[in-house]
Amino acid sequence: SVAFGPRARMKPLLLNGHSRALTQIRYNAEGDLLFSAAKDDKPCVWYSHNGERLGTFDGHKGAIWSIDVSYRSDLCLTGSADNSCGVWDVSTGALQYQLPTASAVRTCNFSYDSNSFFYSTDRAMRQPCLIRIFDLARVKQEGNSVQPRLVIDVDKHSMGKVTSAIWGPCDEYILTGHEDGEIVQWDPKTGNLRNRTKNHTAAVVDLQPSADYTTFISASKDTTARLYEFDTLSPIKQYNTERPVNSAAISPRKEHVVLGGGQEAMSVTTTSGKAGKFDARFFHMIFEEELGRVKGHFGPINTLAFHPSGRGYASGGEDGYIRVHQFDQSYFDFEFES
Fold first, then answer.
1. 262 in Cβ contact with 240 (< 8 Å)
2. What region does 241 belong to: left with phi over 0, alpha with psi -120 to 50, or beta?
3. Which residue of 73, 220, 242, 273 has the fewest C-beta atoms within 10 A of its own C-beta?
4. DSSP 147
5. Three-state DSSP string of 81-130
């Protein structure tokens, strides 16, 4: 897979521990562990430097849509289609708490200090789309019957269901991407809607912050990814492709973003791997120009994550594989000439 220069060839680690399509991958804060969720019912955790699987989290009975890890890497959070949100002990793999919901959990996320977390549920089976915020201390006290600190009813604000969500800088607000292309800020103390913007024309399926939390990138089914300012929600840059963008990430080291996607999974069989455009595509963050592509997956890329050091990235695909790439020296030597 050629990237950045005529002879650059990165040899990725191929992690094959999932029997179905990947839905989300996350590095922990140090970058030594990689957490992965897929449409099978067993989230995994891996050593990122050699691809060895540390173990699986056994306890869910449905697809896992979302996964996150606490700042201290002691707890793991999963959102599942079995109508529950799981809180796991990372060192033992034990399911500590399983919070029941009325519909599938689409997103879940620890706050930066990991003292609280939220999850969002799907609008399905006559159930509304809700964001529920919990204090971890209360969950530890009251167990599975704990009541959320706050419930935000998304349906009251006439917008699409939540398809992606993260905490904002200093946990001041929750940022959600929606099925109709909207991006919204919510106040986690009052539940009020703080700000909203609509620049995408289709579902916003991934939101990822920059390392310093001044900007974030959104990936959308409308074939674009956009860079926004966090507080004002003003769009700064736009990266255009020909296929739906399933995931996008910002490099913590260079002014690069990486986009992954491809045509919808159900129509993949009608095209070859070459025509399917399943490459990870690197763009210059400022100039919006494509810098390089990395091939590899035999289906759409569903999720991407940069290593916290910026020295590599990982991608999870519809083919059930995770590919962990370490950039070689040509990537760091590469200078963009505008």
1. no
2. beta
3. 242
4. P
5. CCCEEEEEECCCCCEEEEEECCCCEEEEEECCCCCEEEEEECCECCECCE
Query: What's the rounded Cα separation, in Å, for the pair 171 and 126?
Result: 31
pTM of the model: 0.94
Distance separating alpha carbons of residues 161 and 203, to the nearest angstrom = 9
pLDDT tops 90 at residue 191 = yes
SS3 assignment, position 154: helix
Edge to edge, the sheet with strand 182-186 lists: 162-167, 174-178, 182-186, 193-198
CA distance 106 to 129: 10
Given a cut of 70, whether residue 7 has pLDDT beyond it is: no
| Contact residues for 261 (Cβ-Cβ < 8 A; gap 6+) | 219, 223, 241, 243, 244, 245, 246, 247, 277, 300, 301
Number of other residues whose CB lies within 10 A of the CB of residue 292: 19
Give Cβ neighbours of residue 191 (< 8 Å, ≥ 6 apart).
Answer: 150, 151, 152
**Cα gap 76→182, rounded to integer Å:** 28
Do strands 150-153 and 130-135 pair parallel, antiparallel, or not at all (unpaired)?
A: antiparallel
Q: List pLDDT tens digits, range 256-293.
A: 999 999 887 666 555 555 555 689 999 999 999 999 99
State the residue for tokens 């996964």.
67
3-state helix, strand, coil in the chain (%, to 5): 10, 45, 45
The three-state secondary structure class of 174 is strand
CA dist., res. 259 & res. 251, Å (int): 11
DSSP letter for 10, please: -
Rg of the chain on CA atoms, in Å: 19
